[in-house]
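Researcher: Next sequence.
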Amino acid sequence: MVKNIMIVGVGGQGSLLASKLLGHLLLSEGYDVKVSEVHGMSQRGGSVVTYVRFGEKVYSPIIDKGQADFIVSFEKLEAARYVEYLKEGGRIVTNIQEIDPMPVITGAATYPGDVLEKLEQLGISVDAMDCLSLANEAGSSKAVNIVLMGRLSKYFDIPVEKWEKAIRECVPAKFLELNLKAFALGRN
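Model: Next structure:
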C-alpha cells in the first residue's frame, strides 16, 4: 500500500528540507521512497510542490488528483489550491499564515477569507496551527517547515526518536537545537 504526501508552499519556505527529512526518515524505516519536486516560480514567491510517496514498492514519483493521504501546507491558500489532490479521508496539515500571492499584491484580487472554514465545511479534516509563532518561539521564523513536520509526525506510527534522528542527519549542526525545539513545539 503506497502512501502519498504533498508538501505545498511558497518559494523560500523550506519545503525542500521538509521533503528531504521525510524521505530520509521513511527510507530508514525500510520503505521504498520516491521524492519529486515540482518548482513553480519559487524564487519569486510562487507555488512550490513536493511529492513524497512511500510503501513496499513505489513505481512513480507523481501524485495524481484524489490520491494524497496528506497535504502539508506552509500557507493556507496553498492548502486550498491543491485540495483536489487529497483523497477521501485524507488530511490537511497547515500553517495558518497568509502570504499574499501576486494577484493580491498587485491589487487584481483580494485574499479570500475563511479558507480553512470552507474546507472544513466540505468535510475535509484540517489540522491548522500558527506554525510561524511556534517557529519564532523555537528561535527562527525559518523553522516553520520543521514545526509542520512535528505536527505531521503525530499521524505516523514512527517513534519521536526516529524523527529526531532524521533531523540530526539532515540539518546542519549549528541549526540543530533550534530545529529539534521547532519539531517538539509542532508535535505538542
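Model: The radius of gyration is 16 Å. The helical segments are 15-28, 76-81, 102-105, 115-121, 131-138, 144-153, 160-170, 176-187.
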